[in-house]
Each structure stands twice: as structure tokens, then as C-alpha cells.
Amino acid sequence: MNLEFQNFSSLPKYAFQNRYNEFEELKNQEPEAGAYPFDKMEEECGIFGLVSDENTDTFSLSQFGLFALQHRGQEACGITVGNDGKMYSIKDEGLVLDVFKTIENPETFMGNCVIGHTRYTTAGDKKKYNYQPFFAKNEYDQIILSIAHNGNLTNAKQLKKELEEEGVVFRATSDSEVILRLIQKNLDLGLRGAIKATMEKIEGAYSVVGVTRNKFFAFRDFNGIRPLVLGAIDEKTFVVASESCALDGVGAQYVRDILPGEIVYTSDNEEGLQSYLVKENCTNRICSFEYIYFARPDSMLEGINVHEVREKSGMKIWEQAPVEADVVIGVPDSGVPAAIGFAKASGIPFRPVLIKNRYIGRSFIIPSQEMREHYVNLKLNPIVSEIKDKRVVIIDDSIVRGTTSKRLVKILKKAGVKEIHFRSVSPPIIAPCFLGIDTPTKDDLISANMTKDELRDYLEVDSLEFLSVPNLQDILGSKNHCFGCFTEKYPVEKPVEEDLFQ
Amino acid sequence: MNLEFQNFSSLPKYAFQNRYNEFEELKNQEPEAGAYPFDKMEEECGIFGLVSDENTDTFSLSQFGLFALQHRGQEACGITVGNDGKMYSIKDEGLVLDVFKTIENPETFMGNCVIGHTRYTTAGDKKKYNYQPFFAKNEYDQIILSIAHNGNLTNAKQLKKELEEEGVVFRATSDSEVILRLIQKNLDLGLRGAIKATMEKIEGAYSVVGVTRNKFFAFRDFNGIRPLVLGAIDEKTFVVASESCALDGVGAQYVRDILPGEIVYTSDNEEGLQSYLVKENCTNRICSFEYIYFARPDSMLEGINVHEVREKSGMKIWEQAPVEADVVIGVPDSGVPAAIGFAKASGIPFRPVLIKNRYIGRSFIIPSQEMREHYVNLKLNPIVSEIKDKRVVIIDDSIVRGTTSKRLVKILKKAGVKEIHFRSVSPPIIAPCFLGIDTPTKDDLISANMTKDELRDYLEVDSLEFLSVPNLQDILGSKNHCFGCFTEKYPVEKPVEEDLFQ
Amino acid sequence: MNLEFQNFSSLPKYAFQNRYNEFEELKNQEPEAGAYPFDKMEEECGIFGLVSDENTDTFSLSQFGLFALQHRGQEACGITVGNDGKMYSIKDEGLVLDVFKTIENPETFMGNCVIGHTRYTTAGDKKKYNYQPFFAKNEYDQIILSIAHNGNLTNAKQLKKELEEEGVVFRATSDSEVILRLIQKNLDLGLRGAIKATMEKIEGAYSVVGVTRNKFFAFRDFNGIRPLVLGAIDEKTFVVASESCALDGVGAQYVRDILPGEIVYTSDNEEGLQSYLVKENCTNRICSFEYIYFARPDSMLEGINVHEVREKSGMKIWEQAPVEADVVIGVPDSGVPAAIGFAKASGIPFRPVLIKNRYIGRSFIIPSQEMREHYVNLKLNPIVSEIKDKRVVIIDDSIVRGTTSKRLVKILKKAGVKEIHFRSVSPPIIAPCFLGIDTPTKDDLISANMTKDELRDYLEVDSLEFLSVPNLQDILGSKNHCFGCFTEKYPVEKPVEEDLFQ
Amino acid sequence: MNLEFQNFSSLPKYAFQNRYNEFEELKNQEPEAGAYPFDKMEEECGIFGLVSDENTDTFSLSQFGLFALQHRGQEACGITVGNDGKMYSIKDEGLVLDVFKTIENPETFMGNCVIGHTRYTTAGDKKKYNYQPFFAKNEYDQIILSIAHNGNLTNAKQLKKELEEEGVVFRATSDSEVILRLIQKNLDLGLRGAIKATMEKIEGAYSVVGVTRNKFFAFRDFNGIRPLVLGAIDEKTFVVASESCALDGVGAQYVRDILPGEIVYTSDNEEGLQSYLVKENCTNRICSFEYIYFARPDSMLEGINVHEVREKSGMKIWEQAPVEADVVIGVPDSGVPAAIGFAKASGIPFRPVLIKNRYIGRSFIIPSQEMREHYVNLKLNPIVSEIKDKRVVIIDDSIVRGTTSKRLVKILKKAGVKEIHFRSVSPPIIAPCFLGIDTPTKDDLISANMTKDELRDYLEVDSLEFLSVPNLQDILGSKNHCFGCFTEKYPVEKPVEEDLFQ
């Protein structure tokens, strides 16, 4: 990595010192293992792009679009805008509204095309130079190309090695930069040609939006693993985003999902947004976990509403494993629609009695060991009177490590419930994802290590059931989607360990 | 060493300059009218106190307690701790977890008593020196007394004037400092005597927790307008907090609510927590709006669970004003329990189809005028398929300015609903609060300016109903509570305008 | 409003974090032994005070006065001003012009009296809370008394212990705070009475200026060890300062030196500046090293011009130890006047050929060991052509550790001089000072450990002479001055080691 | 100007905000006319370069070299180093020791070649992006070429326009960037070829040092207007610097001055430092003002010692204009050697009685108008006893605007001198410099607007004399040097006003 000191001089000295500390820190920075010890798979990234044929308020629209995708990543965000033939980029740690608030010259970010990214770390360590959008510059330090990527390449390491041998210099440690550098390297094939050449090289899951000085583009891998939808505000203003809720956020109409293997792009020669299929007739193998957990309930993915999938999963698991009980409760937020579906199908009343504290985000500082015990009820607190001495069905979207479920059971027991019937509306998670979801390794996946009965005993519940894979396929209306974490069969060849960019 | 550095010189120079700027800024600072233009009454403050007879982890416990009260104020927070005869205080802008995270010497804040405060501005302008806890110092710059206050005094201005004529120096502009200075001034009456003398002077709504170097105290006004509950972790460790959810947060058992006119305190002579009634047999006139909107659903206030009140209010308004409809929806979060109650009573299915973006908090920066129009669906987005062409009952906890309701109706219409039946599960708000709730003035209260029919037409809904005051009293089981914002009759004499500390 | 914010909360969060770090740092801070490894005794502190009977620009005048005293201390500076019955104080690390530049509200510092301090650490470690002026506050956090001190108490430790047993709280670790707290404690004796009581308690060297809310004062120890002069701008505006150059700096006329044992002060009852002798007929025993090294050449101390003393010392040492040579050079800056005197007396031409780099101040960062060798000529570089093959008399004001002299000889030899005749115009320094000068301990004083001949050989010079004590007394016209560092006989009893406040 | 935001993300948020403010500020920044209202021509820039055939401590050596050149510029400084095929650059506002102190990874700056720059603004406004060294990068954001320049081009504006028409992007507003971009553009001619092509294009005064990834170079304009000397530490380590005092600073032997029109450089094919004359037999026309005022007295320029020139000028003006007087004094620092020369020639004794405050650097903040009067004696204070009632010859190096001289006379009169005989040891300055010295315009040059007699009356002195041009030429041994400011005849054609890069 090259030190980039030329801008230091424009900083007040104290900022300068901070930056230096930063640098020193970065040099020694190791991936902070366990810094964010979630016992649940966490959100992946969200991407957003917009192109118009005239200058528009790309500042506000990208803010709205990324805000609507905030659930897909809260660590950092950024945008690159093309404004009158020049490109500007800004990115920083923080929530969308926080980062945009620091921009004091919004007019600089109002142009005719924009891409944005909201980030949760999946590949590449948590180093700050890995924030997106990535960009390439010319010899005069001007940005000429920028992309934002959601997904995970499976051959990034190999490609990076090849490129470096050709003299290409990398400035970050994320697989996404491989995509940037490949396009940059192939720009003499024309923009569409460069993207095509890139797609023919990279493997894995990728939904990408990008801009050059005067063009916009977006493309999706041949399996369509990560979502990417297309909308339009008017006949000249197009939007591409990870989920349709971002289209709602900018007042755009949903047009269709970008196809697996498709490039959409603007060009000098033709008006409007062009489409090009790098490969015809690809099968859509979108990640099923998007429906179960990641996507927002008001989003449509591949024409199917997420909320509806969740409600149906609750109905279906009642059919699959009925039980006598007094009350149904859901683990907020993603377990609630399923609980309502379960109640509807079973006639057992739904009670919204697990109260989630909304001010989570930062971790607690707990200096004394004994206090860690008190931690249990802080995020979820039950309304005791509604469940005391009752037979309770508790619905969660999934069971990953098992620790959250265990804690939940403890909370319910403390509240005096009579019976606990645990229902997961996804099948047992038995294998890690290497296509863009931050699943733990097999060792930490409890269903990869315990049978259902063992897990029931471990959780100390009266019954435990998982939605079956066929039932999930039935709800989604497809056996082609990626169910890799439940079946260990993936649409992409599983990479040798060392080729993963991690 | 005391944490309260008197020296500017101990700051790095740039901090110093910032501080100076700060000073300059403060000098010229006017209350930022409309800086946070909510169209809804917002949360008031939360207070928390804990005392033990030995050193405990007051750092963690106050963090947990304040975190559980975060919904009562997100602007700033702080704690004062008594540790081995010395007192330390820290307070800053930000959420509880953010502020505690900046504390690098947690051990300093581990002692035998602590008070904390989480703040939403009600009285006193938004100047930073108004953050709580307030404290008084001796001539050696050591803290000797500290309090945190929830509520609003109605004669603070007059009292401040009197005290200043006696030579007392005020350092902030909040009514809460009047309480501090009165106790400080009367300390030669003994602690209990000083509190009693203070309570006999101040008027209005006040729940207060406080500490001196070796004692803890809490007291509540003669009407018990703001809530204050007592709990115990063990027989020697007592907790006082605004709501019982904070007791859950620290693993304490609920004991009872502090009585109107009661002082609880520790003393040198007696073991444990003492109680003293400044006036006997006061009637409890707790704010009814706490149940409707402020308090967390899992809290118990005066023995009544908040969630239950809300669910009953939904059932009751169905009885009061039934309607034919296809679906019931609630405005998240506080309208949802009522919607579920309404569904239960009416048999019309409840659908959780208004999706709230959880990353609100900062305001949007919207440079271009036209973009402000796009703003509508960003906070609440409906699942269109669930309500399109349906007759919808929409339940909200209250209607204050009417702008939120208006926007909501617009969202529903855009989603294609057939009919809209709006139900507010509180009576019309016709008068401002001057006892601790940040209600707008009468001019901005839409129900003070429109009849129900006018409002129905303004909102463009098919029907509109408010829960009646008698029905609300029925649910709460009391006609004595404060219903001032619905009736303009208050438990405390309405102050002349200029005497309000604003 | 008082400038002394008690609230952390009024700082932007990052400042706050810095402050906290600061605090943590301070807690663990050890005196940084050898952080400023001078091989020369360094300047002590400078103090300045001004009082007028009406509001004047105390901001500018104290800036000018302290700027003229900058040579007495460059680590930090500060002022306390009385402005319309209120007191404001500011102090920070840095040079006078730097610190004053950061003050954004100069009008706050314009009043009728001011004291200031420019600091080089002598007693108390280098912790930042030891910056002066010191001040005491009342219970409302308002400053009521402030002092600035030059000198060193010899019984501070004992006094501090006594005061703490009486309940007095100290906030710093400097002997100067003992003076502050003693006056504060005795304020009920009236201001003059409190100062008198303080002077009767403290022992050692002290020149002090101070202010209360409406009064000004200054006093000097019974031996007058540290200088203190009185001047007047007009008949109502008086100035007290360490040296007369500060009077010149503010356009004041020199009146006289403050007497040993004298208090000058303003009072409510009498107009103008009052004088009071705590003890009559004290002998003036001012530090002789002030003339030799510390004071500015344009200053008058006790009626004698410093430059003149230095020039005479050069003439005298020629008489005392004549030598044949081709050229006389002086070590800048304090050796130059003596060199000119030597030239005048001897007829040997003076050449200004040692060029001093004026941008010294910060230390060099030298990562590689070998480079430390190159360090020699950076501060002093000779004009080789003027001294090559010449017999050179080199005059320095003193020889302390010997390392500077050794390095100087090396520079001269490298330049090709034929002979070196070294002359120190002070006697051999054989004993440390404990009265306000930062002399090294006896172990590091080279003349306490080597005879003149040994030192001559160590320095590798052709001859070496020191001005004799009688000759120095002759020049100063007094045998009463303090010559402790040359004779080990002090005007104050030498304290037991542990009673020194270090 | 292109916004360079990619690094923002690596800053803590507050730094980020500061940077933004910075950016905003820069956008609106106008040259701060009169921000530093010197009444004297100020120092120009200093440059330094070093090359070795192996890795050496270029960090320390460039620090030492620039420190020795600090008198040539105190606003900012920076270095670019070539370390193992990679290049790193750092630059910031501040003195050399301050800026180097902030570097926390000195090892990064230890390589085989380095260039450095210490800056006083001459051309280009005071914007921070104009700090040097300048550098060019490749498309991977890596530095590939860097230069530091002392002097002033006279056709920079025209060249910049031409280059921009060819598509070259400029990132700063200094004439020095034109040199960088021309070399960069011509790199396919080889390094020497590119420099030659550049020298054939640019006109004016330029001494330049530079580095590429593996080569070092330095060159000087065809008149040799700004100084540039060559030295050697050993047979493989060469140093190039503005003045020979920097050679002393790094322990290098003076070799010779770089010739007018010469390039020295390293190459892949040959060992050691190569020399190439772009034009043969150029006449050396070095700036005579370097000897009079700019250069350090211990420097040798073109084989002549600066101190010697100054002393001779004092002797010469005695010959030219003798006077009866009691005492000779010099204005520190550059007037002192001349005063000593005058004393030597005349027999009138020299007295070092003007005491200069060494802590100047920052400007005073003087809020009240009346206080500006007091300002007089702060920088220079006389020892009154030495000059009172005396006939004084006062020697200064030059008279530029006349305000300093006027103030000086005022100081002397206040001290009671009987007669003042003013001597300037440079001729009258009648024309501005456009070749690298920050002279005021003709309107502000007092000798361009007053005859000697008028000026004598204006200054209110008893006699006034300037060293004549022939006498100066005699001392310097050359009529070829640049005497433009005294004669208005320049070695370079005077540019049309608008072509100057200002």
C-alpha cells in the first residue's frame, strides 16, 4: 500500500496527527475477530444507482435510496456522483443520515448519475479503505470509474494475483476491488466490452452498480444470487437497487428485476438505458435467505413480496407441526409476520409481548464480570402478564448459533411460562454461505452439530420444529433458488478455502 | 482526584479552541426554535437512581437502567456517582451506549450510589449546560450534591428570582437547577429537612433522584404527576426509576411506586432506605398520557401494565365506534397494541403492514425543494398488496398536530385502499401540557382548532373517532389521573404564562 | 457569565474524549525525567501584574508584558483578569503570542486588573494542572482569588500536609498552590492580613502577584531573592513585573524595585497603590545568576543594568586572567556582551562568528543512531574563515554540565582554530539552587566534580578561567546577594531533601 | 480543481468535518492581502536534496538540512523521499522541527534519495495546496515524480495555458507546478531530456531539486539567479542545497556551486552524480540581495562568505560617508556585522544595545486601538544607558518601506540619543523583484518615491547614507550579479504584468 500524504497539508495540524495515528493503526490492524460477536447472521450490503439525462438532485435521491437500504448495512456508506463530466466521491463510517449530514456542499453531489453503497462487512477485513464505492483515477488524480458491489467473489484471490503480476496496483483488500481493476484494465474494449470481459473472469455472487464520467451501468452474476431490481422515476430517470423498498424511497415505479447475466448501461450512441445479456437463459438462483431474514418485509424480490413469504412460512409450519398452545409470540422483528401467519392458521391468539429496545447498536461497556449476567433482558423484555402460566409458541426466523434462542428461552422461563414450543420458519442451517452472507463457520452452526432432538434438549423447550426445505421451496415456488445453507448444495462451485478473499 | 478539572490548560490546544468557540457560541445561543420540528409530542426525561450499602458496579447498573429508559429521551444523558466519599459526574450529548462508551475509567464510576438522567428537553432551552444530573460544589471544586429531575416546575422563575436576590448563583437555565439550589441552600436543615423545605416551595410536576457524598434520596410531587417506581435487587440495594422496565433492566424486583409527596432516603442513623411523607394522603394524579404514548409497553405504572391499557383502548374504541372493514392496521409502535385489541374485539383481521424504518434519528439534508415531496414514504412504507382495494381501519395512539396523520392517509391512498377509518385511542388533545410533556401550543393542536367533522374532512378519511374521556378513565380505573391535555383541567393551578421557565 | 465551565458536556464529543484521555494520562503521568535534557540551567518563571482604577485593555497590556518576559519561560502561560467584579482566567501550553491568539473573546479579558505568568517548570512536576495563575473559587464555581508565583518554597511540603489535615483540598502539585490556599484560608483577616499571615508561614524564594475580585496585590520574600519591579503608566495605573523590560513593553516608567518583605496592594479605603512592610530593614539578597544569565540585557534589576554587568564581567576576567590571542568570540546570546567587554579591555578584536540557529525550540527526531553525531553544528555554526588558524578566546556566561562547552570546543577545532582559551564569566557552579532555578544536582555540576585543571583537560582547551567570586561581588557592588550556587552558602536555610516540593 | 475525497473515510469524523470546512474555506479563499504586513522584504524559499547509492537516514538528513535553511521560509515545509522504489511525501504548515515531529513513522522516510522544501510564499497565493514538494502520480495513485523549486518563473501563466489546452490537469496555483507538469509531460524523452525540454521552455529564476522513483536531479536557470550549492558527505552521497550552511548541517563538504544552466542527475547507466550543461558558458548573475539580507552569514555563495560581505559593506560605507559619532549600533540580526565592520574601519566603538525579542513569529492580537501605540518597543528594546546623550551611527542592511526605520528612530529618540546617523549598507531599493523575492511594489518602496534628502527628513535623522552600487559591486567583485532592485535592470526580460503568476 502506498502512503497517500499529499492531502495532509490541507488539514489542520491536529487532524493531521489523528490521521497519522490512523495510519499507524491501519498498518497494524488485524481483522478484529469477534469485535461484533453476533450470534445471528447479519445483513449484507445494499447498493443503489440512478441515472438521468439531465442534472437532478442525486444527492437527495441517493440519500433516500440508501436510507431505505440501511437495514442491509450500518457500518459505513458512500456515494460517487458524476456531475457535469467530473466525478466526486465521499464515504465514511456511520449511518446514511449521519454521513450525509456531514456533507457541507451538497450541490457538488447533484449531477446526472450516482451510485451508492451501504456496508456490512462480508469479504475483506474491516479496514476503512475497504469502504465503497471503489474508484479508479487517472494520472491527474481525477476519478474516472467507480463501482459498488454486493456479493462475494469466489476466485478473487487468484484474479488479484494475476492482475498484480501484470502491474496493476491494488489499494484495498476487498474482493470488490478486483471487479474495479478488471473493468479499468479492459476499458479499451469500450465500457460494455470491459464489463463483459470482467463477468467472464469473475466467479461467485455479484450485483454491481457503476459510473464512469458520463455513463452508468449495473450488472448481476449468472445465477442472480444477490437481488437487484430496476425502477423508473420517469422515462428518462432509471434506478437500480438491491431491494424494491429503495424504489419506493425515491418515488420510482418497479420495472423488473435485473436478469442473471444481464448488463444494463447507458451509452453515447443510444438513448435511455440499454440491456445486454452476456449469457442467455440463465436460471435465477436468488438467495432464499433474503426472504427469510435479510430483505425488508415491504420489498418485492423476483416478483414475490417478502412479508407474504414470512406470513406463509408461519402458516406452513403450523400445518407441518401443529401443537396445542395458549398464545403465539414472534421474535421481533423478522419473526413477527410468521407468528401472525401461525396464529391465523392455528386460531391460537398472537400476542405482541416481546418488547425490543430500539436503541441497540453500540455494545455495552461492562467492567465487572458479575454484571454480564444482568444483560439478558436488556434487548428483549417480555410483558409477563401476557405469558405467565401459558403454553407459548415462539416463532423465530431461524436458529444460527443457538445462543440467542437459548437466551430467549431463559427470558420466557423467568416470566413463568408453562410450556415452550419453539418454531424456526427456516430449515436447519447446516452449512456456511460463501456468496455474500456473513454466516459463521460450520463449527458454530448449531444445526450442523446437533440433531433436532439434541437441540430441543439443549434449548430446554417442550418441542422444536424447523420448516422443511420442500415446504420452503413450495412457498417460494422454486427449487432453483440458492438453499445452500440448508442443503450444502450451491449454485457455484465451492471454492477451495484459500481462494476465498478473507 | 476529582474528575471536575477546572483547568482549560489540561486540554490539547485544539480542544481548547473548540471549547472557546463553544463559549462564544453559547453566549449568543438562542433557543433553536423548531430545530426539531416533531409533529408529535415527544418523550420527556427518564431518571434512575441506585443505592447499596457497599461498593457495587454502579457504572454498569446505571448504564442498564438508563438504557431501558432511553425511549424517554435521546438528546443527552449523564450520571453522578458517589464513590468512597467522593463524587464524580459525567454527562454528554448522545445515546446512553454512546456516552458510556466514551468513559475510559469505568472504575471511577463504581461506588455505592448513583443517579442518572436521560434527557429530552422540556423546560429550559436546549443549551448544553442544562444537561443533567445537575450538581453543586464546594469551594474546592468538589461535588457535594447532585440531582436528576423529570417534570416541570410552574413557579421556577419566581423562585429563581428570589434566590438570586439572596446571592445564589445559577449556572444553567433549567427549572431543575432551582430544585438543586434550594436543597443546597437548606442543607443546614439536614438532608431530609432540606428536601422538605424545597418541596414546600416548588410547585408543578417533579420526580427527583439525588445523591450527596454519602446519602441517596428520591422524591415525588404531591400529585405524583410523573411516574417514579421503587425496586430492590437485594435487601440492601434499592433502585428508583421512572418506569419499571428499568427495574427489569437491572434485575430488580418491583416493590411499589413512590407515593405522591414522599421522600425516600438513606441516613447515617438508620439502616436501609427510609420513607417520609411530607404530606399525608395525597391523591395520585399520574399523567394519563404516560399510558397512551410515553411509557414502554412492558412497564407497570401504579400497578397497571401499559401494554394492557393500550390493547384495551383498541377494544374499547371498537365498542364505542364500530365500523365494517376488511383489515385493521396500527401505526408503529404505540398504535399496534391498540390495533390488535381492536382486531380481537371486532374480528376484523390485524395486518402488520406499515413498515417503519428503524434508522430514523437524524434529520435528512434535502437541498432541493422538489425532493421534499419524495420524503413521504421514507419513515413508513406500506405493503401494498395487503391493503390495496381494502377497507382499512387505521389506529394511532393520538392526533396532535395532524400532519403525521395527514401524511399517513396520503400513503394509504397511494397504496390504493378503498376506505379509511381513522381511530385515535386517546381523546382529542385540546390543551397544552405544562407539567413535563413537550406538547405544542394550542394554536398547533389540531383538535383545539377543528371539530371532529372538520378534522375528518381535512384528513380526507371516511370516518374518524377518538376514544372518549370517560372510556379512557374507565380503562385506567381512575378519574383522578391528570387528563389535562384532553380536558384543560389540571391538578396544579395553571401558571401565568411568564412564570413558566421557558 | 464566568469562563470556568464546570461541564464536560459543553464540549463537542471529540474534545471530551480527548479530555478523558488526558485525564487517564494525567493519572499515570510520571515526571518526564530528562524530557528536556538541557545541559544548561534554564530560565525560571516570569510574572506580571497591572492595576488601574478604571477598565483598561488588560488583554493587550498583559500580552505585551508577558511577551517581554517570554525568555523567563516558554512552556505555558496564562492570565487572570478582574473585569467588572467578575474574574476570568485562561492558561495554556505555548508561547505568549500563541496562547493569546487562541482567545476569541478578548473583550472578556479587558478589566481593571490583571496578573499573568509565563512558565518554565521549577517546582512541581510538568503536569498541566500546575500551569499558573492559580485560582480559588467559591461554591458557585466563581473565581475569587488568583495568584502567580516566581520562586521556590522550601517548606511547602510541610505546609501542604498541615493544610490538608485542616480539610483544605489541593488541586495541583505545585508549591505555588500552598501560597494560594494559605491566603484563601486567611481571607477573614482581610486581604493584607491574609498575605501577612501567609508570608509568616512560607519560607524560601517568592515573588508573587495576585488579584481578588476588586483588589490587586504583589509581595516579595524577606530576602528579595527573585526580582520584582514596580512601574507606572500613569498616576492611576501601576505595573509589577519580574523585570524592567516588561515595563518598557507596556510603556511604563520604572519606579523602584519591590522591597524584600514588602506587600503592595490596593484597598477599598485608600486610593492608589499601598505599601506595607511585613518586616522592616530586610537585606536585599537577590540572585546573582539573574545578572549572569537569566535576565534580559536591557533590564534593570535593583538599579543595575544587566548588560553592563555582563560587559564588565568580560573586562574583569581579562584583568583577572589575561591571555595572548588573535580573536575574541562570545557564545550567543548571553556570552556576547562579555566578549565585547573582553575585547574592549584587551584590545583583541571581537568577531561575531558563532551563528546561532534561531528556530530551536522543539527537539529533533533522530531515528538512526549514527545521525546523532551530525547534530553538532545545527544550533551553532562558525564562520570558519574568521577563526581558522587563529588563537581564539571564547567567552561563555557559565559552565554547568560541561557538555555544551565540550561540544563548542569540538566545533571550534573542526573549524581549524590554533588555540582555544575558554573563559567563564561566572565562578564555578558547585552547588544546586533550591530557590527557583532549575540547576542540576551536584552530581551533574561539572565544577562540583572536577578541579579547574581537570576540567581544562576534559574540555581539551589551552587555558580555562572562571571569574572569581570576589570579582563578581565587586561588579555587582554587593556581598549580600545570593551566590549560593558558587559558594554553597544560601540566604535561606537549606531544606531537608524531603521537604522540597519535588 | 477536483475534489479528492477518497481518503476522507480514513479520518475520524471530526477531522472529516474540519477537512470539509477546510475545503469550503479553500473554495472561497482569496489571497490574504496584507495578512502578514511586513515592512521588509522577506525570505524566499529554501530547497535541499540528497542522494546516496544505498538506503540512508534521509529522514534525519533532510530534517537537518531544512532546519539549517529555516531562515529562508517559516510558513510550511515538506519532503519527498524515494524508498526502495516507492515514493512518499509529506508536507504541512509549520516550522521544520514541528512538522517532522508529527511524523510517526520515520522509517518510511528513510531511503536513498530525498528532496525537501521550506517555504515562504513568493508566487502563487497562500493556499495550502501550493506547499512543496510538488508531485505527480500515476493512475494507481502512486507518486512517480516530485520537485521542489526556489525562484519565480516569468512565463508560467502562458505555459500553464498551453499545457491545459493539451489536456494537462493542474492541481495547485503555483508557478512551480508548471515545472513539474512540463517534466512529467516530457518523461518519454528520458529524465535528462525531459528536464532539458523544460528548461528550454521556462523563463525566469529557478533552482530546482527533484526525484523520480529511482533517480535524483537538480538544475539551475541560465543566469543562476537563485543560489544552489553542491556538497558531498562521502563519495557516493551527494547533497544539493540553497546555501552552504545546509551542507554544514548534514556534515557534507562543499564541492562547488551548481552552474547556471546545469543539470546534475543520477542515471541507470552511470555511477555517481552526472553533470550536463544545457547551455555552455552562461554568466553567473546571482541575486546580490542574497548577500545583503537573505542568506545566513555562515554561508558561502559562489565562493564568497556572506558575513564577510556584510562586514566589508560596513567598512566601505565608512569610507564612502564618514561621520563623527560616539557609538555604532547595528539593527539585529543582519545589520550587526556591518556595524562591526564600520566600527573597525572608523574606530568608533560598537555597542550591542538593541535587544531583539526572539519570540516573534505570531502576530499580536490587539483589540483596542490605543494599544497599537504601545507596540513600538516590543520587538526591539534599547539599553538606554549606552546611548543616552550620545551621537549614534545606526546601521541597517537596507531600507525598504521605511516604516521599520521610522519606528527605530522613534525608539532611539525616546532613549535620548543626541544625534542619529543612519546608514543603509545596501543601495536605495527603487524597483521590485520578480525573480523570487517578495519585494513590495514600487508604490511602497520608499526610495522609489523619495530622494535621499527627503527620506532623511522623513526619518528625522541627522544624516542618511546608502552604500553606492559601484561600492557594492566592488565588494562582490562582480558587475554581473543581479542588482535589479537597485538599478531596475534585470538579467531576464521584465515580464508583462499579466504574465506573472500572481
TrEMBL record, chains A, B, C, D:
Location of the Glutamine amidotransferase type-2 domain: 45-269
Domain of life: Bacteria
Cofactor requirements of the protein: Mg(2+); [4Fe-4S] cluster
EC number in record: 2.4.2.14
Keyword NAD: no
Positions bound to [4Fe-4S] cluster: C287, C433, C482, C485
Catalytic activity: 5-phospho-beta-D-ribosylamine + L-glutamate + diphosphate = 5-phospho-alpha-D-ribose 1-diphosphate + L-glutamine + H2O
Keyword rRNA processing found: no
Catalytic EC class: transferase
GO MF annotation: an example: amidophosphoribosyltransferase activity
Cofactor note: Binds 1 Mg(2+) ion per subunit. Binds 1 [4Fe-4S] cluster per subunit.
UniProt record, GO biological process: 'de novo' IMP biosynthetic process; purine nucleobase biosynthetic process
Swiss-Prot/TrEMBL keywords: 4Fe-4S, Glutamine amidotransferase, Glycosyltransferase, Iron, Iron-sulfur, Magnesium, Metal-binding, Purine biosynthesis, Transferase
Active site: C45 (nucleophile)
Residues given in the record as Mg(2+) binding sites: S334, D396, D397
Pathway: Purine metabolism; IMP biosynthesis via de novo pathway; N(1)-(5-phospho-D-ribosyl)glycinamide from 5-phospho-alpha-D-ribose 1-diphosphate: step 1/2
HAMAP family in alphabetical order: PurF (MF_01931)
PANTHER family attached to this UniProt entry: AMIDOPHOSPHORIBOSYLTRANSFERASE (PTHR11907)
Function per UniProt: Catalyzes the formation of phosphoribosylamine from phosphoribosylpyrophosphate (PRPP) and glutamine.
Family to which the UniProt record says this protein belongs: In the C-terminal section; belongs to the purine/pyrimidine phosphoribosyltransferase family.
NCBIfam families according to UniProt: purF
UniProt protein name: Amidophosphoribosyltransferase
